[in-house]
Here is the input.
Amino acid sequence: MSAIHYNIKQRQVTHMKLLVCITKTPETTAKIAFTDGDSKFDESGVQFIMNPYDEWYALVRALELKEQHGGTVTAINVGPAANDVVIRKALAIGADDAVRINAEALSAGQVAANIAAHAKDKGYDVIFTGKESIDYNGSEVGGMIAEHLNLPYVSYASHMDHDGTTATVNRDIEGGVEVVDVTGAFVLSASKGLAEQRIPNMRGIMMAKRKPMAVEEPAVTESKVSVVSYTLPEAKGGVKMIDPENMDELVRLLHEEAKVI
Amino acid sequence: MSVLVLAESPNGQFKKAAYEAVHYGAKTAASLGGECVAVVIGPADNPADLGKYGASKVVHLADYTGGIDASSYTSIIGQVAAQVGAKVVVVNHSSTGKSIAGRVAVKMDAGVVSQVNSVPTQEDGGIVVTKPVFSGKAFAKCKVAGDKCVLSLMGNALPITEIGSACPVEAGSVDVPASSVTIKERKTVDGEVPLPEAELVVSAGRGMKGPENWGIIDDLAKTIGATTACSRPVADTGWRPHHEHVGQTGVAIRPNLYIAAGISGAIQHLAGVNSSKCIVVINKDPEAPFFKAADYGVCADLFDVVPRLTEAFKKMKAQ
Ligand SMILES: Cc1cc2nc3c(=O)[nH]c(=O)nc-3n(C[C@H](O)[C@H](O)[C@H](O)COP(=O)(O)OP(=O)(O)OC[C@H]3O[C@@H](n4cnc5c(N)ncnc54)[C@H](O)[C@@H]3O)c2cc1C
Ligand SMILES: Nc1ncnc2c1ncn2[C@@H]1O[C@H](COP(=O)(O)O)[C@@H](O)[C@H]1O
Here is the structure.
């Protein structure tokens, strides 16, 4: 799974094969409600978007690497045909082609198993995911793909340089960053800062219509994890307004009533 | 059957998160049957202390000093789980825990549920546990089929109490393949509780007008021993470091007390902080949406109110 290196007039040019996992999530201000006895997310009236971490950071950094080293960027999604709009957007932003694994996404495990099954013999140099999907907030898919493919997993990347062979990555950790070097193919999850969001232009949108989008049948259709039911958090009791001149009163309430200090 | 818990010891020291994970592991073992075994990777002061929070034994792999990557962690945990007969593995929902939970699950052929906030129970043919979804706007009850699962525990999800006494510590033995990841350095802010673990957080937004005004926020935070946070535009414009950014695209936190000054309370900001036990909002705009999500509100100029709140806390501490 390593890059092909060759020299043209002293300059090393590397052809990189890049895979970006993209998922569809409700738009960030969407109203969260449930149906079917609270067992299903109520999609009525909800607008869907590409998961921000996938679109803004993972995809754009992959495109930048391609622009720097040459190569291809493939977008992949596990989902039904309704997801094609989101996949087209990835093509409009600049991905060369796309793959949709034709199955409902049931859990991180089932999604990762399918992506790994697609990727195992393709020789991708870097497989990108977002740091988490903003609906399920699992942060699971990337590591699971890596384990299936026996590749290193570098999570929460906020910066990455890649010379074609070795990548140097800054990872977000509690209260700071960790800097790591990784050689050879790997899976990376993108956090904020990895790249600057790109807005698709008219030309990109037109070109996207002609770019190849393959539909593959799933290798794995069973899931170990399922959601039994959803609940909404209890509503807040209402705000107690405090006289700005009386901060002693606020401190007293925090101490005696809320008991948090 | 046993429950294996990774007790993280950053810089050789256990933090609250490690005790939380062990305590949760002990409760999980009590609920599902079996005992709670803790694994400690790298140097650690007093691993036997984990017994106080419910571990019946600690497997200590003290040799891993240089920091290890996700695949090495996975390999170690997979081997120790097999050695102690663990079918359930518990990690913190920390940068390390999140990076390995899914990997370990694949290795063990188990289901994974991340950011859990309840003790799992056995229900016909599976393990049931809850977690927040939609950035804390709802909770999902998840079911893992079979008897194997990996859980990452949300911070501050349950109170910890000492329930036992020091326990035996065994030196572990595993075989870890070489990794193609080298950790070159770790740059962390010393002496401050990291945001995901903080019980008290003081946060500020664009209402601060500029980075030069943060002194009053730092003073308030220092007075009560809180960690500082900020809204996204504040981190984006470089007024504050990125790791302080909380919200949907930043860190999700769950402190006991969240004080927000000069933050409007946009839905994406709330997504990261709405599970806080108590929220205090200081904003000069009575229409600021944040007041609707607050427990206590102060409608006034923060430059006037924040220093006086600091003084009031000092007065309370002096008593
Ligand atoms: C997809 C997406 C993801 C996002 N993710 C996040 C995220 O993770 N975290 C996040 O924070 N934001 C996020 N945002 C941005 C979010 O929508 C808001 O724009 C942002 O939270 C606003 O930051 P703010 O409250 O600091 O600034 P503003 O909205 O400008 O609010 C400033 C507030 O300060 C008050 N104020 C001003 N002066 C004073 C004074 N002297 N005294 C008291 N009060 C004063 C004002 O009344 C106002 O309410 C996201 C947006 C999108 C679209
Ligand atoms: N159905 C899916 N198809 C393709 N990629 C996905 C899918 N679900 C999640 N991912 C990827 O995995 C990342 C983490 O998702 P999660 O583990 O659900 O938080 C996302 O940011 C995506 O890059």
Remarks:
- Chain B touches chain A through 96 residues (CB under 8 Å).
